[in-house]
Design brief:
The protein is α+β, with helices and mostly antiparallel strands. Among the domains are: about 90 residues, wza like fold; about 70 residues, Roll (Outer membrane lipoprotein wza fold like), CATH 3.10.560. Helix content is about 25%, strand content about 20%. The chain contains five helices and eleven strands. The chain has a five-stranded mixed sheet, with helices on one face. A hairpin with a 5-residue loop joins strand 7 and strand 8. The chain is elongated, with a radius of gyration of 42 Å. It starts with a helix and ends in a 5-residue tail after the last strand.
Length: about 230
């Protein structure tokens, strides 16, 4: 009996060892790869995330409606006058946009809102006025921009080679205006200059400096020096 029990035990032991040996081993991930138990849906979610907002999109999203724009910020110190030709653009309103000239009465005659005072005002002031008028019962949150296309001329006289009327350009100085008139005469007083500003009745004397500004409609006079 003892011998039979020993033999049965030996048979059972051998069967268990064989089953362990035949059990497949857990797969080993190749070098450089880490096996992940994360479901495939997590990967799909990560790859479909929204792209970051670009700078232009952020700027567009943050733009304030009813805004006013003047193309050149240096125009803040410029005052519009008779015969200035300007372009006004009302965003998404072609029938209200176009090119206009400042009339002899100093106004701009615009569609829908009528006359807007322009003479003696900066382009930025005019744009704000137009925007306010359009917003008063005509358009919801209008956006308006303004360009000065053609400035009224300036005049130079006195001791220059070719006195006369000349077209104005942005940033014009007294020395630029003298160059337009082909320079000083030999009698010119190069230490001072007389300027009658547009809209004023009397000329003023200024030291003749290279950065002295000239504006549209100004009259520049170069005096004669005394020997």
């Amino acid at each position: 009996m003892h011998l039979i029990r020993s033999m049965l035990f030996a048979v059972l032991f051998a069967s268990g060892s064989l089953a362990v040996a035949q059990r497949p081993a857990d797969p080993v991930a190749p070098a450089g790869k880490v096996q992940s138990s994360t479901p495939a849906t997590a990967t799909a979610t990560a790859t479909s995330a929204a792209p970051p907002v670009t700078a232009s999109a952020t700027a567009s999203a943050g733009a304030s409606p009813g805004s006013t724009t003047v193309s050149d910020s240096t125009q803040d110190d410029y005052r519009l006058g008779v015969a200035d030709k300007i372009r006004i653009i009302v965003f998404n309103e072609e029938t209200l946009s176009g090119e206009f000239s400042v009339s002899d009465s100093g106004t701009l005659s615009l569609p829908l809102i009528g006359d807007v005072q322009a003479r003696g005002r900066s382009p930025r002031e005019v744009v704000k006025d137009i925007t306010a008028k359009l917003a008063d019962g005509y358009l919801r949150e209008p956006r308006v921009s303004l360009d000065v296309l053609t400035y009224r001329p300036f005049y130079i006289m006195g001791e220059v080679t070719k006195p006369g009327e000349y077209p104005y350009t942005n940033g014009l100085t007294v020395m630029n205006s003298v160059a337009r008139a082909e320079g000083f005469t030999y009698r010119a007083n190069k230490g001072k200059v007389f300027i009658k500003r547009a809209g004023e009745t009397e000329e003023r004397r200024y030291p003749l400096q290279a950065d002295l500004r000239v504006y549209p409609g100004d009259t520049v006079r170069i005096g004669e020096r005394f020997f």
